[in-house]
Input
Amino acid sequence: MNINTSDRTQLRGYFQTNSIPTQSNFEELINGMLNQKDDGIVKLPDNPLSIQASGDGASLQKVINFYKDFKDPNPAWTLSLNPRSKPSDSNTAKSGFSISDGQGNSRLFIDATTGNVGNVGIGTTEPKAKLDVNGGLNVTGNVGIGTANPKAYLDIRGQANCLVVQVKSPIPYFVNESDYGGAIYFGINGDNSEYNPIAAIEAVYGRVGNPQIAIGVTRDFKNNESNRQANMIMEYNGEINIRQGTNSCLYIRRGDGNVGIGTTDPQAKLHVKGKVKVEGPGFLNFDGQDDYVELPTMNPDLSEGFTVEVWVYYRSFKSWSRIIDFGSGQSNDNIVLANYETGRKLIFQVYNKGVGGNMVKADDELELNTWMHLAATVDKTGQVALYKNGQKIKSGTTTAPATEARTSNYIGKSNWPNDYFDGQMRELRIWSVARTDQQIKENQFTRMSGSEQDLIACYRLDPDKKANDLGPQQWNGGLFGGPQFSQSSSLFFDNDTGSVGIGTESPKSQLAVAGGMAIGSTYAGTKEAPANSLLVEGNVQANNFPQNSDLRAKKDIEELHYGLEELKKLRPVMFNWRTIPNPHKNLGLIAQEVQPVIQEVVYMDDSAGGDNSLSIAYANLIPVLINAIKQLDSKISNIAELIGWGEVRTPT
Output
């Protein structure tokens, strides 16, 4: 910095005894002094020294430059009131108090802009918090945030004097740092003592041995450093052990990678000591007394028809208990899916302008204590179809549903008194068209996202989505009476009995399956077993195959008309399977040849993923054989009578 004014020695020479100072001498004296008005530095009586920044609002507004030596080209430090994040760019200026280096880079900044007043930036002019450090931070000693008495290297306190985080290294009571390591505590409360921390989480390495993370910790370092209680501990010693007290919850062993649940000696990749449950789909449980779901006013366009489908599980058949009842009160545009009286009939009915249409009934199709997929469709002409587990079980007609705003819409409850559902439901879906047979069958096991075409509403009725509508209208339901959401079990292992349940948590056998089952590499991946049925690709060997034939389980009984004439039309053959190796040829019939003769014993695989292949229920041919034998016996008796043989005796 170039200084052109005279120094004090020169000025004294102008003002000696008998000397007459000139005008220029006085000018040098005046120019060498500070002037409060011209130089922006003022000291008024009873006020501190005041300094005005130089420059206008577009400048850096420097207040003081600090030099080690005035011969230096730049100051060592500068105090300014309008610093810049980029010293050469005036557009980066920001109002505040700044200490900058000789190149104009702000090193300490106190923000004065609206909304950020008082924020301190170290190495930045854009502090986003009360203290914003751009770069490393090195602190020697304890640091307290929210406390003036930090008890650890980092001691952070929140409201109500609750210690949120505490970092200790070494642990205070311990003397040998290298031996005992340190600890980090999160969520400390209690007496807040450095010797007796009570923490939500403790991460520690020291006398405890292996590095550990403990949850729900109490400590007593002063009296007994090993006295620690924790709800759960995760320990690493080359292996991972998550334990509760001394009981291992999850153990992962180094080397073989075996995982133990409930054991620290896993003998397989996954070794579980205790019962195992794999959750299946959730459901909503109705008590049959006063539990139901109420939906808001619904006014969908039903000009093209209507479909409702749902998975249900009946515990009992209450009188006219409703699956759904959508309407505006009794006999007022109701759409009803329910059981008939207190029996096993499934009914569907539509009311229009106070008049009930025909009631379409499927006799004796409902079952207790088993999951069923039920569906009802009605098109714009009133043609109705009822389905169970993807199969059409009844057709009929009723009144086509009107497009009206229905104000009283229930799941599990009627618009009439006391018709409550007793059981469980899940995955209830409403469509604005009459879905086809194929759509009902192929999608019964598919969960909908809510965005499918023609889908009006979709209710998962599980603990996750509850009674919320996934459809476009979001007609969310409210729970009344106290129905409970639960989670079913897809796979269950009972360690006490050695039993396995699939679809059930109460297996009564070594293997209990609630639902259909497919066995074989091809069948398991491509074929869908009907409910409570078994598909087998290959041979089945057993000592006996008893079949249920109780009269109480049958309906629509009539005399069999098949017999000898039909058997004579069948062609027995010998053959080999194309995909199944066999040591010798098989004996049987060709399903395509049997179908036009005795169609009731031929079944088609029309399931999702099926190939329409045909099967024969050979056991169902036994009644036909019995009829044929009786017919032959009658013919033989007639012949014997004609030729005078008398009674025909069977040779012995």
Notes: The CA atoms of residues 325 and 336 lie 5 Å apart.
